[in-house]
Amino acid sequence: MAEAAALAKIELQLIRVLHTLISERSVSRAALRLGSSQPAVSGQLRRLRALTGDPLLVRSGQGMAPTPTALALQEPAARLLLEAERIFSPRQRLQAFEPATARQRFRIAASDYLDPFFLPELVARLQREAPGVQLDLQALSADFDYRAALARGEVDLVIGNWPEPPEELHLGRLFSDELVVLMSQDHPMARAPARSWTLERYLACQHLAPMPFAAAQPGFVDQHLASLGLSRSVAVRSAHFGQLPQMVAQSLLVLTTGRQFCSRFVDRLPVKILRCPVPFPPLNYYQLWHELGHAAPAHRWLREQVRELARQLARA
C-alpha cells in the first residue's frame, strides 16, 4: 500500500526532472534546460530524494556527481519519457525536424582517426543548416565507456571505427578505408625502390601508434599483426592522434593508419604515403546510436548529416 501511494505521487514531469538532473549533474543547468527556476528544481530534487531514499546527486569538487542509484535510474527514466512521447504525442514524434528553427542539443562522441576535416566540417555544416543547435563533442578514449554513455542518454551518437561494433547498438556504415603507411620524405624507405619496401623492413621500422580505445587491448593494427604471428616495435604511443603526422614529418617514425586521414597531410607536410606490406582488412567507420534516440526526428536528421558529410569527404 505504501509503495502504491508513493507511485501515485509521481508525475511525468518529475521523471523528466530526474533524467535532466542526472544528465546535467547541476541544478542550475537542469533548470535552464527545463525552462524552470533553480528553486523549483531544487524542490523537485528534494522530492526525488525522499521518494528514492537516495541523495541522487552529491557534491564532488566544484560540481555534483550522480550516485550509483542515480546512474541506474537514468536509462529507465529515459525509456519512460520516450514511451510517454510515443503514447501522448505520436504526431509530434513523427513530424519533420525543422533545422532552421530548432533549439536542440546534440552530444557526439567521435574519434579523430577518421579525417582531420571531419569534425570541423560537421560543425560548419550544422552551424549553417541549424544555427540554433548546440553541439557537444566528446573524444573517444580508453577511459570513456561509450556504450554506457549511449544507454544512459549522455551522448546521442558515437562515430569511430571498430572491427566488430557492439551488437546491442544501431549502426550506420560511413565508409571503408585502406590502411597505408605514412613516413617522412627523409626516411630511407621513402627514397628506396618500391620493391625494397618489404614486410621485414616494415616490421623493422620504429613505429608511431595511437593509444587504443580499450586500455586492456592492443589497437587494431597490433591485433591484426598478432593474428598473423607478427609484431612490430612501437617506439611512441600518443593519445593526440591529430599530432601524429607532424611527429612523422620530424622523425624517422612511421604511422600505419587510413589513407583518407594520411592524404590530408601530403600537401601540408614533408611526408609520403606508402602501401602497407601487410594484408590488412579494410578500416570500417560507423556511426552508432542507441534505441533511445532511434526514432527521434532530430536524431535521424543528425545521422543523415553525418552520413552525407562522410560521403562527401570520401569522394574528395
Features:
single chain, 316 residues, Arc Repressor Mutant, subunit A, D-Maltodextrin-Binding Protein, domain 2, elongated
**Percent in helix:** 40-55%
Radius of gyration: 24 Å
Low-confidence stretches: none
SS field, number of helical segments: 14
User: What is the average of the pLDDT values?
Assistant: 88
- Give the name of the CATH architecture of the largest domain: 3-Layer(aba) Sandwich
Q: Strand order across the biggest sheet?
A: 4-3-5-12-6
Major β-sheet annotation: 5 strands, mixed
Roughly how many Å apart are the termini?
66 Å
CATH superfamily heading of the largest domain: Periplasmic binding protein-like II
Helix/strand/pairing category: alpha/beta
Query: Can you count the beta strands?
Result: 12
Shape: elongated
How many individual domains?
A: 3
Order of helices and strands: HHHHEEHHEHEHEEEHHEHEHEHEEH
Percent of residues in β-strands:
15-25%
CATH topology of the largest domain: D-Maltodextrin-Binding Protein, domain 2
How would you summarize what this structure contains?
The chain has 316 residues and is α/β, with parallel strands linked by helices. Helix content is 43%, strand content 21%.
How are the SSEs placed, and which strands pair?
Blueprint: H1 2-8, H2 12-24, H3 27-34, H4 38-52, E1 57-60, E2 63-66, H5 68-88, H6 90-94, E3 105-110, H7 118-129, E4 134-139, H8 146-151, E5 157-161, E6 170-177, E7 179-184, H9 188-191, H10 199-204, E8 206-210, H11 220-227, E9 233-238, H12 244-249, E10 254-258, H13 259-263, E11 271-275, E12 283-289, H14 297-315
Parallel strand pairs: 3-4, 3-5, 8-9, 8-10
Antiparallel strand pairs: 1-2, 5-12, 6-12, 7-10, 7-11
